Give the backbone structure.
Amino acid sequence: MLTAFPKKISETPLSFSILISGGIWGLYWIPLREIEGYGIPTYWSVFFINACPLIFILPLSLLKLSHFRTSFWPTLQVGLLIGIAFTFYASALLETTIMRATLMFYLSPIWGTIIGYFFLSEPFTRARLLSICIAIVGLVLLLSGTNNSSYPLNIGDLFAFLSGILFSCGSSILKHRPDIKMIPLTSFVYIFTSVGAFLLIIFISNEPLINIKNFLTSIPYVFMWSTVILLPSFMIVFKVSQILFPGRVAILLMSEVVVAIISASVLVPEEKMFYLQWLGALAIITAGFTELVIAKFKKKSSYIP
């Protein structure tokens, strides 16, 4: 029998926790690219930043073996989908521009809403439609005014597009199975992301073996980002994803888009933002709040005699 969450949980703090956690993941590109400065080849950085947290997660999993028995197969499915999605997304951040990789991935609100409507009986409300429309306008504005001719479409754009679809599928299953526990899920996600990155190293990039000295030098930096900063926000996102509808989760996670675009425009000269793009970022933030504000307004209105 599935374990249901208490109905009295307020969605507002949960929504804000996802908004903040998404913002933290908007900085994900920084360690991925900075690790290369330690002499670590491109795809190896994807492998290490996802394999490092396993040092902490796997021993913890041994203490929670009973959690694996309750919902092993759905947890495995979600872990596989989201793990491969993260592999593709991280690789996209290295192969194409940060802006394009992030925007391609965050077409996921559309996939999340479609999946939620057809498979989870999630209502397709006017508020959600308005949020998606505003988000799409924001995406169009963010793509405008850039000198993308210097960066032709490549495999990184395909990776980013696929990652958004896979992430939405995994999130939808996660919402449908509230009995999935966080420790097993986190273990599977990081295992499959690491395995996916290793397979890309072998079959796609054909990168050389890393220098052991470079690897040891990079460990403190990788550990700080992967385990201290990114891991907690990851667990918050997926715990809350079991409570909120996937369409709303995907929209709220657009805070990652804004943080990624702003940080890239400041730190990467070739990705400088123009006025229309700043308006696009504002539109995406607005999209994240639109559905929440409308839903809260309707709830208050229902109490008016």
In short: Residues 1-7 have pLDDT under 50 and may be disordered. The chain is about 75% helix and 0% strand. Residues 110 and 132 are 7 Å apart (CA to CA).
